[in-house]
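Hey all, quick one. A colleague (J.T.) asked me to put the flavin-adenine dinucleotide job into the tracker so the inputs and the structure tokens live in one place instead of scattered across chat threads. No bug as far as I know, just bookkeeping. Sequence used:
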Amino acid sequence: MTRVGIIGAGVSGLVAAHALRRGLGPGAGIEVFDSADRAGGLLHDATVADRRTDVGAEAFVLRRPEARDLVAELGLSADLVVPTGARPAVWAGDRLHPLPAPAWMGIPALPQAVHGLADDADITRMTVEPTRPLVWTPGGDCSLGELVADRFGPSVVARSVDPMIGGVYAALAADTGVRAATPALAALLDEGAPSLTAAIAALLPAPGAPTTPVFGALRGGYRQLIDALVESAGARLHLSAEVSRLDPAGRGWEVDGEPFDAVVVAVPAPVAARLLGVAAPDSAEALAGIATSSSAVVALAVDPATPMPEYSGVLAATGGELARQACANPAKALTLSSRKWPHYDGDASPIRLRVSFGRLDEPVVATDEELRAAAAVAMGQVCGTGVSVTVVDSVVARWPQGLPCYAPGHESRIATVFAGLPPGLAVAGSAYRGVGVPACIASARAAAATVEGHLAAL
Ligand SMILES: Cc1cc2nc3c(=O)[nH]c(=O)nc-3n(C[C@H](O)[C@H](O)[C@H](O)COP(=O)(O)OP(=O)(O)OC[C@H]3O[C@@H](n4cnc5c(N)ncnc54)[C@H](O)[C@@H]3O)c2cc1C
């Protein structure tokens, strides 16, 4: 019997198991190991005021196909929900501003998009940007912060790009490489875009083009996806099973002494670096250089009478974080789930929200109690000065090493990782070619295809 081992039962490991089951058929022995006592990794929920609530990831991008296709493949399309259409805001200068639009990854397309938000000097800088020669080496890289600060000014980075990049990568634009985080922008610069303004204009949909929802989620939260994946994979799931060794053994591999014909490593980059040390030392060394951020999410239910703003959520500008007096870790973002999702409870139910803490340069050090208190203060701030928020229930979830940092040069680092993998070993997860769930699904399907190709050639 063909035997495949998968290390990590997050969405990446489980999608790899699901894809391998489809490819290899019912006879294959697929075994998934996870150090936690549950499957799902960062896709996890908890009960907050009687409602199961996602406390890790909560949504997926619908403008790429992977999540939508997987949901359909698992027969869950009837439970696909899209947001209400309420827009997010930026918290800067102790008040709310609409998130700049039109913009791409927080990079405004026009100076008018950041009026009242960016400094006047930077608005002038944006206005003349198309007339300043743009120096870009094709194939080169720099940080997104460096690029946008040079072309549009530092206040545009701090108040428009950082909030967006922080929401996706839990890092600053200054820590994030253009090529890995915004490959479409890098491609336009490689092709000789004359200015950043021109490149952003080319990335935006044509005026009047039909708009489709950017995000989706499942009515029952990510638990629905994880349960369906576990069932469809039909794998033997080893929980509370921390893998510490991955060794070559004949034509295959041993996972803590258990033999397999092929192995998929679907764990965070620092763990993958440790596990691949013997089997793929060059890949391990490249992976060890990927920094990760720690973050925490506080999911809250508050009094339904709280005067909630019309926005779907709030992203904090750098230097203007929420609840910064209240806690060693100021809040970075707040999602007003009750505004954002139509399937949330009605008017008489508590208002539900999530407040996020932590960033690459700011690991979460505050206690759970401090985070809960800071989350309530942050909600009070966005609801209006002097609003005191009555919390009905709250849950704190911590995500150490939750997100990898895509620093400048990330793409070539990842090419080294893949080049160093011997036949029969594959990797999947957020460290490689995208941190969101759709990118993890793509990486897991690619890992499964690599394994199948290897097994077919044996
Ligand atoms: C707070 C937060 C919110 C996010 N929100 C979104 C969102 O809304 N939308 C979106 O698309 N993305 C979001 N992301 C990103 C996305 O959730 C992750 O990139 C994705 O879930 C990663 O999945 P994974 O399977 O690769 O890794 P993980 O979910 O980290 O799974 C890895 C698994 O490996 C296990 N493991 C670790 N070490 C070992 C070991 N030695 N042996 C065995 N098992 C081990 C872990 O227990 C874990 O279960 C968010 C990330 C964070 C941190």
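Adding what we noticed when we looked at it: Residues 7-13, 33-36, 41-43, 56-60, 242-243, 266-268, 271, 295, 297, 399, 402-403, 429-430, 435-437, 440 surround flavin-adenine dinucleotide (CB under 6 Å). The longest strand covers residues 391-404.
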